[in-house]
């Protein structure tokens, strides 16, 4: 089934990965949560069932994983980018809230108790929660540079289009995956406050400043 909203979402997802590449190579200042990048690699590897069935999905997953690994390399090891990484601001307790929270949600909301299905559910909830440390860091900074706001904005819009794609699929087939849908809704809600200020900054043509 051709689902145009899914392809729009995939394109925006790819754009969100390319923006940090441009940011880190054009301007070596990193106001980005380093720990969010390994989570992206984990969730992309966790959803490996699609690697078996679709060349399109295989190509996109490999592109996402390689892009994430490259960003980790820039932020952690490549000078001068690693020198500007603000580890003091990147202090969110990831293991306590993100990894554990995703595991608990996967046990509560899942399609099946089979190990593979639980792993897939875990990846959905991990992706839903993974943006929290980035938003936490941006709230501390308050004044967000344009390229960082574009990065998070692209992530928020891509999740919105994924929800639209699920609704579109349901309208045609009657099938719905509640784990994916609920995870997408939670993630979109987490982005909502940021997207509000992001849209205001686009309309005003000024830099983005988060509210208190």
TrEMBL record:
<dbReference type="InterPro" id="IPR000133">
    <property type="entry name" value="ER_ret_rcpt"/>
</dbReference>
<dbReference type="GO" id="GO:0016192">
    <property type="term" value="P:vesicle-mediated transport"/>
</dbReference>
<feature type="transmembrane region" description="Helical">
    <location>
        <begin position="180"/>
        <end position="199"/>
    </location>
</feature>
<dbReference type="GO" id="GO:0015031">
    <property type="term" value="P:protein transport"/>
</dbReference>
<feature type="transmembrane region" description="Helical">
    <location>
        <begin position="150"/>
        <end position="168"/>
    </location>
</feature>
<keyword id="KW-0812">Transmembrane</keyword>
<keyword id="KW-0256">Endoplasmic reticulum</keyword>
<keyword id="KW-1133">Transmembrane helix</keyword>
<dbReference type="GO" id="GO:0005789">
    <property type="term" value="C:endoplasmic reticulum membrane"/>
</dbReference>
<dbReference type="GO" id="GO:0005783">
    <property type="term" value="C:endoplasmic reticulum"/>
</dbReference>
<dbReference type="Pfam" id="PF00810">
    <property type="entry name" value="ER_lumen_recept"/>
</dbReference>
<keyword id="KW-0675">Receptor</keyword>
<protein>
    <recommendedName>
        <fullName>ER lumen protein-retaining receptor</fullName>
    </recommendedName>
</protein>
<dbReference type="GO" id="GO:0005801">
    <property type="term" value="C:cis-Golgi network"/>
</dbReference>
<keyword id="KW-0653">Protein transport</keyword>
<dbReference type="GO" id="GO:0006621">
    <property type="term" value="P:protein retention in ER lumen"/>
</dbReference>
<keyword id="KW-0931">ER-Golgi transport</keyword>
<keyword id="KW-0472">Membrane</keyword>
<dbReference type="GO" id="GO:0046923">
    <property type="term" value="F:ER retention sequence binding"/>
</dbReference>
<feature type="transmembrane region" description="Helical">
    <location>
        <begin position="58"/>
        <end position="75"/>
    </location>
</feature>
<comment type="similarity">
    <text>Belongs to the ERD2 family.</text>
</comment>
<keyword id="KW-0813">Transport</keyword>
